[in-house]
Design goal:
DNA polymerase, domain 1; 2 domains; single chain; Ubiquitin-like (UB roll); alpha+beta; elongated; five-stranded mixed sheet; 16% strand; binds FE2/S2 (inorganic) cluster; 160 residues
């Protein structure tokens, strides 16, 4: 029996329109993982600190653990499942092999930075990745991979 408190939410998910009924307190992270079976985004802290739950909200990295699902009505959400496998090549080349908890969020932010290499003019990669934590302190490979990927995109952008 439908819950009369539920809210119907329509949004774009990984490029496809979606309509789903959610409870007012449902978090986007849980809707993705448990209602829509998109388990790439992970729960780490659940408090907006670690970045394991990173998705794109209208193209910008956001912590899905902090977003009530009803608030994404009319918005565009993209998850790690939409990221092509070859987007990882820079990180693999630099040995940035991380665990399953932090990798999805790191990759989401890294891929976004690669599309915005101009940010490296005013920020370091470490500053830009500050919202994605690794408890194992495996940052060097991550930073190297992202720096290489951003630099090559920046060079390509300047050449065109
Ligand atoms: S689980 Fe969302 S920021 Fe840590
Ligand atoms: S938390 Fe994933 S490798 Fe450190």
């Amino acid at each position: 029996m439908p819950d009369s408190n539920n809210i119907n939410v329509e949004f774009t998910l990984n490029g496809n329109p979606i309509s789903i009924d959610v409870a007012p307190r449902d978090r986007l992270l849980d809707t993705l993982r448990y209602a829509l079976d998109l388990t790439g985004a992970k729960e780490g802290c659940g408090e907006g600190e670690c970045g394991a739950c990173t998705v794109y909200l209208d193209g910008v990295p956001a912590n899905s653990c902090l977003i009530p699902t009803y608030q994404v009505s009319g918005r565009a959400i993209d998850t790690i499942e939409s990221i092509p496998a070859d987007a990882l090549s820079d990180m693999l080349a630099s040995g940035a092999t991380q665990c399953g908890a932090c990798t999805p969020g790191v990759v989401m932010t890294a891929c976004w930075l690669k599309r915005h290499p101009e940010l490296l003019k005013t920020h370091t990669v470490r500053e830009l990745m500050a919202g994605n934590l690794c408890r194992c302190t495996g940052y060097d490979g991550i930073i190297d991979g992202i720096t290489d990927g951003c630099q090559s995109n920046y060079d390509r952008g300047n050449a065109s």
